Amino acid sequence: MFSQFNFLIYLTPWEIFLIILDITVVSFVIYKAIMLIKGTRAVQLIKGLFVLIIAFFISDLLQLTTVNWFLQQIQLLIVVALPIVFQPELRRALEQLGRGKIFSGSMTYLGVEDRSRLINELVRSVQALSKNKFGALIVIENETGLSDFIETGVNVDGAVSAELLVNIFVPNTPLHDGAVIVRGDRIAAAGCFLPLTDSPYLSKQLGTRHRAALGVTETSDCVVIVVSEETGTISVAHDGELTRYLEEKNLKEMLEDVLLTKQNNNTSVFNIFRRSS
Q1: If we measure between CA atoms, which residue out of 145, 182, 191 comes closest to residue 162?
Q2: CB-side neighbour CA atoms (13 Å) of 82
Q3: pLDDT value of residue 112
Q4: What is the dihedral of CA 105, 111, 117, 119, to 10 degrees?
C-alpha cells in the first residue's frame, strides 16, 4: 500500500507544498459548493442525481443491459439540463463571489430544546394574530432550503419571538402583506413572495395567503402557518395539503409532529446536504 506513495520521496519540499495547496483549494471549493446548494431546492435534485449514478453502476455491475442502456441515453439530457436546472444557484454563487460572501459561515442545527422554544413562540404569536384578525403567513424552513424566496424579501435576521412576529404583521405596515420565512430559530426575512398553487380543487373562499402557502409546500418540505385576515382562522400547510380551523393545541401538535418527531427520526444518508429548519 505504502509503495504507491514512494514517489513522494523524490519530490522537493516546494513540490510537496504545491500538492498540498492544490488539494486544499479543491477541497475548499467543493465544500463551499455544498454549503451553497444546501440552502436551496437544488438539494433534492442532487439526491436524484446520486440515485441515477448509483443505479448506473449497479446496472453495469449486474449486467442489466436494458437498464444500463436507458441510463446511458439520458446522460446527454442530464448534461444539457444541469445548467438550466441550477441556474439560480450558479447566479447566486457568482453574486456571492463578487460581494465576497463566498467565505461566509454556514447555519447550525437546532437542538430539541431550541425547537421546542421556537414552536412555543410561533404558537403564542399565532394566537395573538388570530385574536386580532391580523392576516399572517409564516414559513418555517425544513430540510429543503428556501434561499430563493428569502432573497425576494427584506432581510431581518432576528430571533423568533411572538412580539416581533405580531409587529411584522400589523396592518398597514411595510412588511405585513408578504411572508415571513423562519430559518433555524431566526426570522431570515419578511415581505417575501411565494409561488401560488395551481390546484383547481382549492376552495374559492381562500385567498392569496392560502394559495401561496400551498404553493410553496408543493415544491418543498417547509411548514406554513396561515392566519386569515377576515376570520382569524388558523391553518397549516404541509406537503401540499392544507389543514384549517386549528386551535392552539392542534397547532402545537402539528408543529411538534413535523419539527420535532419527524426530524428526530430522520436518518437520511444525505444529511451532509441538510440545512437546519
Answers
A1: 182
A2: 8
A3: 85
A4: 90
The neighbour count for residue 147, using CB atoms within 10 Å, is 22
CATH class of 112-273: alpha beta
- Coil, strand or helix at 263: helix
Q: Which of 176, 152, 153, 172 is nearest to 164 (CA)?
A: 176
In the chain, which stretches have pLDDT less than 50?
A: 1-2, 99, 103-108, 266-277
Buried b (16+ CB within 10 A) or exposed e, 244-274: eebeeeebbebbeebbeeebeeeeeeeeebb
The pairing of strands 179-183 and 136-140 is parallel
- The residue extents of the domains of the chain are 10-103, 112-273
Q: What is the pLDDT of residue 104?
A: 46
d(CA 38, CA 276): 10
pLDDT in tens, 195-220: 998 887 788 788 899 999 999 998 88
Q: What is the DSSP letter of 261?
A: I
